[in-house]
Amino acid sequence: MQQHKQSKTIEHHEAAPAQRIGHAFAQASREGRCVLIPYLMCGFPSVEQSLAAILAAIEGGADLIELGLPFSDPLADGATIQHASHQALEHGINITACLSIARQVAAHSSVPLILMGYYNPVLAYGVQRFCREAAAAGACGLIIPDLPPEEAGPLLEAAHEQGLALIFLVPPTTPDERIASIVRVAAQEPRGFIYCVSLSGVTGARDRLPPHLQSFIARVRRQSAPYDLPLAVGFGVSRPEHVAEIARYADGAVVGSALVHLLERHAADGEAQRAAVRDYIRSLRACTVRQP
Ligand SMILES: O=P(O)(O)OC[C@@H](O)[C@@H](O)c1c[nH]c2ccccc12
Q1: In a 10 Å sphere around its CB, with 0-12 CB exposed, 13-18 middle and 19+ buried, how is residue 1 labelled?
Q2: CB 143 within 8 A of CB 165
Q3: Helix axes 257-265, 270-285, angle to 10 degrees
Q4: Before 190, cis peptide (omega within 30)?
């Protein structure tokens, strides 16, 4: 039995979608840069515009994509993403619609897709059903911001069965021993990365990165380095110089609200919107290169 289980596990790892996440980080590292991870809300400003925006972000050089599932009570989100969530829900966007968008993106691109959503809708949909359908739609990982590792057992098991990584958040106030326990869970194969939350607060574009960001990342790195687990930074990242700073000491930068807001500004003109997304991502991607 053990032998059979062992071979099944190995086979799983070879085909695990999550491995594409590690490959994206490794490729960027070989190129001397951090990865760029745009976040977009499924169905915002509309299904068609969100799909076009995702493809434009990929054309602009996104290394991975975070796809947001709208939720009625996005407690970790600021005004920009709360508004996008509300609008997407108004358009009837649900998990099925999000999986359809993921499938269409995966049909056009091999860029790893990470589904980002709150736990309640996933629980209501069915944890195993969600993981099975997310993997079938081409997703490589999941971020469930309101699910701490100690409560993540059932989802972690269902995700790993489908070869999906479950990516956990580490806020800047997290004590070292808590970081160590989160890293231990996050490092289990098939693995993704650690999402380092740059600031204490909600999502939303900021003008400046927090002054203590580098020392926070160094603190997480002390726990993650033995596992060789990549660190991505999100929250507030909006300018090319933010990405340039993050590239110096982290492995990835996540940009959400600034991009979602840009979509909103160009919602009236699809062509202008796609060009604006592509050019914005290009400007950020140019700064992912580590300066010597
Ligand atoms: O919007 P910002 O400040 O650029 O932060 C990224 C964030 O949008 C994205 O990663 C995200 C969207 N919703 C979330 C909820 C919790 C944690 C992270 C997120």
Answers
A1: exposed
A2: no
A3: 150
A4: yes
Of 66, 133, 245, 251, catalytic: 66
Model pTM? 0.95
* Tens digit of each residue's pLDDT (9 = 90 or more) over 245-273: 999 999 999 999 999 999 999 999 999 99
Q: Which residue among 75, 77, 98, 115 has the greatest number of ligand 1 atoms within 8 angstroms of its CB, and so is best to mutate?
A: 77
Other beta carbons less than 10 A from residue 30's beta carbon: 8
Selecting among 77, 133, 245, 251, the annotated active-site residue is: 77
For residue 206, give the ligand 1 atom closest to its CA: 3
Residue 68 Cβ contacting ligand 1 at under 6 Å: yes
H or E segment and range at residue 53: helix 47-59
Alpha-carbon distance of 22 to 192, in angstroms, equals 6
* Closest listed residue to residue 77, CA positions, set 257, 213, 231: 257
Query: How much is the ipTM here?
Result: 0.99
Please confirm, yes or no, whether 66 is among the known catalytic residues.
yes
CA of residue 74 to ligand 1 center, whole Å: 10
What domains can you pick out in the chain, each with its CATH number?
18-285 (3.20.20.70)
Q: How far apart are CA 97 and CA 182, in angstroms?
A: 31
